[in-house]
Amino acid sequence: MEFIELLLTAIGCLLIGGFSVWFTMRYLLKQRSESIIKEAEKEAEVIKKEKLFEVKEKGIQMKAEIEKQANSRYGKIQQAEAKIKQREMQLNQKNEDLNRKKQEAEAIRDNLDKQLELVDVKKQDLEHLHKDAVQRLEQIAGLSAEEAKEKLVESLKEEAKTEASSYINDIMDEARMTANKEAKSIVIKTIQRVATETAIENSVTVFHIESDEIKGRIIGREGRNIRALEAATGVEIIVDDTPEAIVLSAFDPVRREIARLALHQLVTDGRIHPARIEEVVAKVRKQIEEEIIETGKRTAIDLGVHGLHPELIRLIGKMKYRSSYGQNLLQHARETANLCAIMATELGLNPKKAKRAGLLHDIGKVPDDEPELPHAILGMKLAEKYKEKPDIANAIGAHHDEVEMQSLIAPLVQVCDAISGARPGARREIVEAYIKRLNDLEQLALSYPGVLKTYAIQAGRELRVIVGADKIDDSETEKLSGEIAKKIQDEMTYPGQVKITVIRETRSVSYAK
After folding, report:
1. Which residues contact 245 (CB under 8 A, 6 or more apart)?
2. Residue 188 above 80 pLDDT?
3. Can you give 75-140 as a three-state secondary structure string?
4. Enclosing H/E stretch for 505
5. Is 353 exposed, middle or buried (0-12, 13-18, 19+ CB in 10 A)?
6. Is 60 exceeded by the pLDDT of residue 98?
7. Are 331 and 197 in contact (CB under 8 A)?
8. Which residue has the higher pLDDT, 185 or 128?
């Protein structure tokens, strides 16, 4: 019991002590919180004062800046007002000047009106004086004014004709001394630089044999060999009494060449029969085709013309076996190409294009088929087909004036083609056509009044015209030569140029008896 009492007493003491401690701690915490709150209030007051101070400072700064900006804008406004006032003063001054000038102009206009009135009066007086003077002159001269005017006009016409003729002669002389000289110089230089040999070909080829015994072997039994050879080559083979010679006749030079080479191999080999003939002809035809392509390639490389279509190269090679008026077509094309390049360089044009057009200008003469088209038009279509440039195709088609020229290369190709074909020895001409051209020249000049005789000399390159001294004077001879030259240009076709010389002479004949 005592123990329990003691325990209870102890517990009671402990409980009383705990309550006292708890109350003490609560009191202390309350005082501490009150002191913290007071300190926080003090700090908040200090921060509030600082912030108020900062706000006041910023307000003062912003006020100062606003006042500064306002002062700046006010200054600009004052400057603008000053400029406007100055401009207004200037405008007022100009307005005053304009008013003053307007008044002066009105005064001048009034003065001019008065002077014009005086001029009209004086003009009327002068017209009266002019009429009086004309009447007096008509009375003195015995001619009316219209008659005198007509005589004056006639005299002025004659004088103008004489002066114009003299002026034209001077211009023509100067042109001959400058332009003609330069043109001749260019042409001569180009001809000298590209001089080539020209071989005249016909429609027959003579095949030489060692003895006439071979003729029988070529003919064969009942003519079977010669028939097989003609059928395989398309060439007519003429075996006649001509010693040691057989004639191969065909208008196609390629066929003639195939027949010649095949015949040469057959005669050399000695085996001549239809099967062998067909084999040899086929082999030779293949060789000729390869040689044509090789010739075309070599020609293009020699001339420096690149990028040609293979078919155009083959056509260029075929020109080796064609001729035009006896002039080898490939040599003519090479010569024309070189002439074009040289003249294009002299004239400041593109020499590569000119050379290309000159080389291809006659490809229309060697097509695989035979369409009924002029060779210039056909050549132009072939060039377009194989992707040549438009100016090159136009130069090919226009070198005989069959289409309109569209570039400077076209007339250049035309001129160089004429130079190559017209130079001495380049082409042969049919005798009948040659004689007809000479007669046409002479008859054309004889059709003019006052012409007594005409002579075509130097193979038609010069025409001499004899005129009557009593029918044409010296001043009209120059005019006559020009008219004849123009008519020849318009009505005739001829290679090169024709020189017209008009001769006027006076002869006096007496007889001593």
Report:
1. 206, 207, 208, 209
2. no
3. HHHHHHHHHHHHHHHHHHHHHHHHHHHHHHHHHHHHHHHHHHHHHHHHHHHHHHHHHHHHHHHHHH
4. strand 499-505
5. buried
6. yes
7. yes
8. 128
How many Å from the N-terminal Cα to the C-terminal Cα in the chain?
219
Residue 198: pLDDT band (50, 70, 90) is very low
DSSP 496: S
Tokens 């490809």 correspond to what residue? 363
pLDDT tens-place string over residues 247-271: 777 777 777 888 888 888 887 777 7
Element of type H or E holding 377: helix 375-385
Structure tokens at 317: 């090679």
Work out the mean pLDDT of the chain and round it to a whole number.
79
Closest CA to 159 of 424, 481, 475: 475
The token duo for 293 is 């392509």
Q: Which of 392, 403, 291 is nearest to 337 (CA)?
A: 392
Separation of alpha carbons 420 and 418, rounded Å = 5
Contact status, residue 479 vs residue 165, Cβ threshold 8 Å: yes
**Residue 249, Cβ neighbours under 10 Å: how many?**
14
Is residue 190 within 8 Å of 339, Cβ to Cβ?
A: yes
Please give the residue that has the higher pLDDT: either 14 or 366.
Answer: 366
Instruction: Residue 123: count other Cβ atoms within 10 Å of its Cβ.
Output: 11
d(C-alpha 388, C-alpha 357), whole Å: 10
Query: In angstroms, rounded to a whole number, what is the distance separating the alpha carbons of residues 170 and 183?
Result: 19
Answer for the pair 295, 320: CB distance below 8 angstroms, yes or no: yes
pLDDT in tens, 302-316: 888 888 888 888 888
Report whether 421 contacts 399 (CB < 8 A). no
Q: What is the pLDDT of residue 506?
A: 74
Q: Please report the DSSP string for 451-482 in residue order.
A: EEEEEEETTTTEEEEEEETTTS-HHHHHHHHH
How many whole angstroms separate alpha carbon 156 and alpha carbon 406? 44
Q: Can you read off the two tokens belonging to residue 300?
A: 């293009």
Query: What b/e string do you get for 278-306 counting C-beta neighbours within 10 Å, with b at 16 or more?
Result: eebbeebbeebeeebbebbbebbeebebe
Q: What angle do CA 506, 512, 513 make, to 5 degrees?
A: 145
pLDDT of amino acid 304: 87
Burial class (CB in 10 A: 0-12, 13-18, 19+), 211: exposed
